Amino acid sequence: MNRDLTVGEPARVLRQFCLPLFGSIIFQQLYNIADSFVAGKFIGNDALAAVGNSYEITLIFIAFAFGCNIGCSVITAQLFGAKRHADMKTAVSTTLIACGVLCAVLMAIGFFGGGGLLHLINTPDDVFADSKLYLDIYVLSLPFVFYYNVATGIFSALGDSKTPFVFLACSSVSNIAADILFVAGFGMGVDGVAWATLICQGVSCVLALYFVFRRLRTVETKEKAPLFSWRILGRLAVVAVPSILQQSFISVGNIVIQSVINGFGTAVMAGYSASVKLNNMVVTSLTTLGNGVSSFTAQNLGAGKFDRIKAGFRAGLKLVWCLCVPIVLLYFIGGRYLVYVFLDSPTGEAMDAGVAFLRIVSPFYFLIAVKLVADGTLRGAGRMKQFMAATFTDLALRVLLAELLSRTALGSTGIWLSWPIGWVIGTGLSLLFYFKANWGGTDAAEKP
Questions:
Q1: pTM for the full predicted model
Q2: Interior/surface letters 267-276, b for 16+ CB within 10 angstroms, e for the rest
């Protein structure tokens, strides 16, 4: 059901809305974790390195899907909060049309330029073929990736975070079973991992879109909503393009970092591939909670309830910190056991690299959580310049430091240290922009 985030005690409303989002992203990350688990356990470390290597490039495509999700979610939430239901429906259909065009362009780039990208990041010859195979099959799944992300953005804008959670939970569990069946049962290699993921993503996408359209039909409008609007597309682009650029630059930065890591050999690549999946699961989960804060902020902005924006920020901080406590303890103390889930040996250079990464990065999850909640508030209010400035500063520092520190006696450990240093600076900027904003209403953002 649709949920009005402009009424009720902010902490309770945000908690009830965000926790299913958190669960959803955990299951979303199981797609990639399942791929790495099956590749590492049933095929070998070279296959794990290949999947992890290709994953950094797939994040560029995911960045575009994520931007479409955010643009649609924020604008739809603002229009829903303002009770402009016809415009809200037009925003949804405009997003779907624009996504189809964008997805077609990216698929062409993926098919014809994937090999060049793999060469660009210094992919070793012994994993190049498998990396290219995984990437080619992943490109086929892009329509499912895009439209699923848009569907979840629409559900979030309408205040419903439970429906996509149910779909994704079932699909993710099925993906694990399909991965094992295709690789262990049918004797397939990296291609089996990729095809299993494509099939399960397709199922979750179709189900999500079906229920989105059913939900939208229950929202009554006085007049027929146009299918496409250049004006609304412009508004969507104002939010979506900065989000796409932010995620794209992060992905490009990660690719640069991956190319630095590739210089240390397949073992370090495999260890990093395992640990970065665990890291990305946490950061992406916290980002999704920040997106929940964005929807909360956008609905209340649309309704003109500016006092609830600051209350939502405080409630968001409490929520993410509570979630960080067990995660940090688990990663820091039990990191070796978690990394071993992906590797075929409990010892060796790959294991040492993965454990070192988790122990250096995980204590700083409390800090990046603050940044992501502040960023979510800024984005929900349409403050994209400040949002991008903080993000790009964090990214630029990480890439630069990874390159520089890797050349010192620290070696690969220097690369891991670039994460917390970038997060410290980025969080400081995000908080500065948040506290400088006037959340009293006159300067919150341009109302819809």
A1: 0.70
A2: bbbbbbbbbb
What is the Cα Rg of the chain in Å?
21
Q: Is 172 exposed, middle or buried (0-12, 13-18, 19+ CB in 10 A)?
A: buried
Query: Residue 411 gets which letter from DSSP?
Result: T
Residue 122, SS3 per DSSP: coil
Residue in the block written with tokens 């698929």: 107
Query: What are the CA-CA distances from residue 41 to residues 33, 78, 195, 347, 423 (Å)?
Result: 12, 46, 18, 14, 32
CA distance 38 to 183: 8
Distance of alpha carbon 418 from alpha carbon 428, whole angstroms:
16
123 CB burial (10 A radius; 0-12, 13-18, 19+): buried
Q: Is the distance from CB of 85 to CB of 220 less than 8 angstroms?
A: yes
- Can you tell me the distance from the alpha carbon of 330 to that of 35, in angstroms, rounded to the nearest whole number? 22
| Contact status, residue 316 vs residue 290, Cβ threshold 8 Å | yes
Q: Are 418 and 401 in contact (CB under 8 A)?
A: yes
Euclidean distance between the first and the last CA atom of the chain, given in angstroms as a whole number: 23
Sign of CA dihedral 304, 310, 313, 319: negative
DSSP secondary-structure letter at 263?
Answer: T
Tokens 């979750």 locate to 204
pLDDT tens, the chain, 448 aa long: 566 778 888 888 888 887 777 776 677 666 666 777 787 777 877 887 788 778 778 878 888 888 888 888 888 888 887 888 899 999 999 999 999 999 999 999 998 998 898 888 778 888 898 889 989 999 999 999 999 889 988 988 888 878 877 877 777 788 888 888 888 888 888 888 889 888 988 888 898 899 999 988 888 888 888 889 999 999 888 888 877 887 777 777 777 888 888 888 888 888 888 888 888 888 888 887 887 888 888 888 878 888 888 888 999 999 899 989 999 999 999 988 888 877 766 668 889 998 999 999 999 999 999 999 998 888 888 787 887 787 778 778 888 888 899 888 888 889 999 989 888 988 999 999 988 887 765 444 444 4
Token couple for 243? 């989000």
Composition of the chain by helix, strand, coil, percent to 5: 85, 0, 15
Q: Are 158 and 3 in contact (CB under 8 A)?
A: yes
* Closest C-alpha to 165, from 56, 290, 18: 18
Distances 259 to 64, 144, 263, 287 between C-alpha atoms, Å: 22, 28, 7, 25
Taking the C-alpha atoms of residue 47 and residue 36, their distance in angstroms, rounded to an integer, is 8
